[in-house]
Amino acid sequence: MLEKKGRERIVIMRYVKKKYFFSDWSKLRDIFTQNNLFLFLDFDGTLAPIADTPGKAKIDSSIKKLLRQLSFLKNCRVAIVSGRSLKDIKQKVGLQKIIYVGNHGFEIDGPKINFKKKVSLKSKKIFKCIAKAVKIRHQDFPGIVIQDKEMTLSIHYRLVEKKKVRFFEAFFKKVVAFYLKKGEIIVNPGKKVYEVYPPIFWHKGKAVSWLLRKTRFFQNKRKIRAIYIGDDETDENAFVSLKSRALTIRVGLKKSSYARYYLHNVNDVRIFLERIFLLKRGQQ
Ligand SMILES: [Mg+2]
Fold first, then answer.
1. Do domains 19-117+202-281 and 121-197 have the same CATH topology?
2. 240-254 confidence digits (pLDDT tens)
């Protein structure tokens, strides 16, 4: 987990026993029926299967159709929360009425919202230095994908040869050690990816909490029920900080997760979206 800095209180949480989401459906559907729903969905591994490289990831047309249908309902809002840059995630999904939370929450855009977190020039320079240091060793570790997204940096190593992964991880830790020691960056490991952030306590969960405090997204006065679905370590920050504000679901059962529920895979997410759509459409 990210360390909380400054005056932030350190929250000690225990992993809870996770339940398969659909096993509680009959209980949850009443809650979903009564309230407005705000869906927060990660992209890679949640709406689209994980691909060898980020460029190859693709959202299935049936899921895209459901997202579009949901985005037109008055009692439902959809936000896609991703580590990809805003431009990238918008292109990948390509729908109008959706809120896009890009760059791990550092940039947000959609109906009634436009936000950009300030990131210092110094941080941006550090990302370039790290990217350069990794790029120099490109021949030793073929398959590395570097994404300098200006506000955050991602180094993907899914395609690095299995026997070299250990060496790459050791090399990367050496590259970032200097900056980490000085508190100039935050590093979060994900699924065969290192996410590098500026030293600001801001992440997907913080961004979603911030969005939930805004009341402008729904016209009616009904309560808002938030649901967050994600599959990766960066989503764990969201599971922790949204504990009291959202129903949290991890894609793929993992004991060491802070999410309350789990779904098996992207297809389960599709079934989830379908059920929610049928439920909420009936109320229009
Ligand atoms: Mg993901």
1. no
2. 999 889 999 999 988
Query: Coil, helix or strand for 222?
Result: coil
Cα gap 233→78, rounded to integer Å: 21
92's CB contacts (< 8 A; 6+ apart) are 43, 48, 57, 58, 59, 84
End-to-end Cα spacing for the chain:
40
CATH class of 19-117+202-281: alpha beta
Question: Any residues with CB less than 8 A from the CB of 199 and at least 6 apart, and which?
Answer: 5, 123, 183, 184, 185, 186
Q: How far is the CA of 41 from the centre of ligand 1 (A)?
A: 9
Q: What is the DSSP string of 66-85?
A: HHHHHHT-TTEEEEEE-SS-
Question: CA 258, CA 21: separation in Å to the nearest integer?
Answer: 14
Residue with tokens 């026993």: 17
pLDDT tens for 197-256 read: 999 999 999 999 999 998 788 888 889 999 999 999 999 999 999 988 999 999 998 888
Give the residue extent of every domain in the chain: 19-117+202-281, 121-197
For 121-197, CATH gives 3.30.70.1020
CB count within 10 Å of CB 167 equals: 14
Ligand 1 center from residue 230 Cα (angstroms):
6
Buried b (16+ CB within 10 A) or exposed e, 7-32: eeeeeeeeeeebeebeeeeeebeeeb
- Give me ligand 1 centre to Cα 125, in Å: 26
